[in-house]
């Protein structure tokens, strides 16, 4: 057998010249006679898609007892009673998920403590920590949710018969359930009928729900409010499918203990409200939200029978589009001595009516895009500067001199101010320097699109460090 020729490095040359080799296939070199003959095809490997697994879902089920020896160290270091108190503190403030799923994977002891049903009182299943499947909901109802008080199922397919049957099991087994969230779900009327059997139901979120039949949904909602209305304190109906006027009538008729009402962005955005009757029917109301609505006050206002919302703390009606010279605002808020938050952004009524509410102590005031006049803004700031914590007067056509006077008033009196939004206004460097220097608690200042400010500072500043740098920059520009 003839000997093969060896190459430069002493290796035996192959019988067929090759250019390179990849994955067991050879490609001919330029000296080979097969360059234009039969081509050699390399079959690409098929890409296999890995199955996506939910790591949080795995840790919720029972974990096998095959653990390493390190588990003993954890078990001996922290007693179960202390672990339970730590976990309880976290779940009370942040909810059960994903915290309990994570800590249950640490060791056997932590898994056993995290499985205690008394820790699963506030459970949010809307963010995908647990798979949105009926089987998981059934498993949780049997092993974790016996003591649940707050349950959020936003985004779940409640219209699925399996999911609805699992929800039925929860309603039957979880006797402590007080609040349930079904926002952005396809909610059939049978689901609302199912909730009538919740003995302790106090809050329900039906924001932006979908239903096959609006009429049946409205009838089922009326039945739910009629049966459970006396216990309901928190009801959220933003984007509701029902007629807004009928919703308000139902609330006044069946829900005397309401604390929070949200009727924002309704499908039928216009309604009449008998404010005096509403105040008499729901005297405990603390939060009223009605964004993008058109509400008008009806009924004869009788001074001797007037009571007002004495407990009201938040009033939010951005994009209110009826110009009634502020009568609705005045009649609704008169007597609300505890009001802390007032949001009337992008409203068209006469803001001079706010001057009649100067006796109130407003902490969060939002007046963006209200076309407010210089004089009115100066009077408003003079009334509430000492109590303001967060103020938004962005995108208002206030003159430079008028706004400068307002900023000087804030610098002198707004000792509690932490957030100030001046975007799109005529704020000037001198007024901004005064606010930064006078408001010692200021944490955020928005100067976006402020045409009177120099270049490089027309943005938002957050934190004491950025605010100090802004003031230093403005002082340097003034000196130069």
List key phrases describing it.
480 residues, alpha/beta, Leucine-rich repeat, LRR (right-handed beta-alpha superhelix), 14-stranded mixed sheet, two-stranded antiparallel ribbon
Number of strands: 18
User: Separation of termini?
Assistant: 94 Å
Helical amount: 25-40%
Poorly predicted regions are 19-40
Largest sheet: 14 strands, mixed
Strand order of the largest sheet: 3-4-5-6-7-8-10-12-13-14-15-16-17-18
Distinct helical segment count? 16
Mean pLDDT across residues: 83
Q: Which fold name corresponds to the CATH topology of the domain at 361-480?
A: Leucine-rich repeat, LRR (right-handed beta-alpha superhelix)
| Highest-level CATH class of the domain at 361-480 | Alpha Beta
Structural class: alpha/beta
Strand content: 5-15%
**Based on CA inertia axes, which overall geometry fits?**
globular
- Fourth CATH level, the homologous superfamily of the domain at 361-480: Ribonuclease Inhibitor
Radius of gyration: 33 Å
- Which second-level CATH architecture of the domain at 361-480 applies? Alpha-Beta Horseshoe
Pfam family, one: F-box-like
Region (Disordered): 22-57
Keywords: Ubl conjugation pathway
Domain F-box: 78-125
């Amino acid at each position: 057998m003839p000997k093969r020729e060896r190459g430069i490095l002493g290796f035996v040359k192959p019988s067929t010249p090759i250019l390179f080799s990849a994955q067991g296939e050879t490609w001919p070199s330029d000296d080979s006679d097969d360059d234009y003959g039969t081509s050699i095809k390399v079959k690409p490997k098929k890409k296999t898609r890995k199955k996506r697994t939910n790591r949080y879902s795995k840790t919720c089920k029972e974990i096998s007892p095959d653990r390493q020896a390190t588990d003993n160290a954890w078990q001996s270091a922290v007693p179960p009673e202390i672990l339970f108190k730590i976990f309880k503190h976290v779940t009370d403030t942040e909810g059960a998920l994903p915290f309990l799923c994570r800590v249950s994977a640490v060791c056997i002891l932590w898994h056993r403590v995290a499985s205690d049903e008394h820790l699963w009182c506030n459970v949010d299943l809307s963010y995908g920590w647990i798979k949105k499947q009926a089987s998981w909901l059934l498993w949780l109802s049997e092993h974790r949710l016996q003591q649940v008080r707050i349950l959020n199922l936003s985004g779940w397919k409640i219209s699925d018969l399996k999911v609805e049957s699992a929800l039925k099991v929860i309603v039957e087994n979880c006797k402590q359930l007080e609040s349930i969230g079904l926002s952005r779900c396809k909610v059939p009327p049978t689901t609302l009928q199912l909730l009538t059997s919740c003995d302790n139901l106090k809050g329900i979120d039906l924001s932006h729900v979908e239903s096959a039949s609006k009429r049946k949904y409205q009838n089922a909602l009326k039945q739910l409010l009629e049966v459970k209305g006396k216990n309901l304190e928190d009801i959220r109906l933003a984007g509701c499918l029902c007629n807004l006027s009928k919703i308000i009538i139902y609330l006044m008729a069946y829900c005397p203990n309401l604390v929070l009402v949200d009727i924002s962005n309704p499908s039928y955005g216009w309604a009449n409200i008998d404010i005096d009757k509403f105040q008499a029917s729901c005297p405990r109301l603390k939060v009223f939200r009605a964004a993008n609505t058109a509400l008008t006050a009806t009924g004869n206002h009788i001074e001797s029978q007037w009571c007002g919302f004495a407990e009201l703390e938040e009033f939010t009606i951005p994009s209110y589009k009826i110009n009634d010279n502020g009568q609705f605002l005045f009649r609704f808020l008169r007597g609300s001595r505890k009001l802390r938050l007032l949001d009337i952004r992008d409203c068209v009524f006469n803001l001079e009516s706010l001057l009649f509410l100067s006796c109130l102590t407003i902490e969060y005031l939002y007046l963006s895009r209200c076309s407010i006049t210089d004089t009115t803004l100066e009077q408003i700031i003079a009334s509430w500067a000492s109590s303001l914590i967060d103020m938004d007067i962005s995108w208002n056509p206030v003159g430079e001199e008028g706004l400068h006077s307002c900023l000087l008033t804030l610098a002198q009196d707004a000792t509690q101010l932490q957030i100030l939004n001046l975007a799109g206004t005529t704020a000037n460097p001198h007024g901004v320097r005064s606010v930064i220097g006078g408001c010692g608690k200021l944490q955020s200042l928005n100067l976006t699109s402020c045409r009177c400010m120099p270049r490089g500072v027309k943005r938002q500043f957050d934190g004491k460090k950025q605010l100090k740098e802004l003031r230093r920059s403005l002082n340097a520009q003034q000196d130069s």
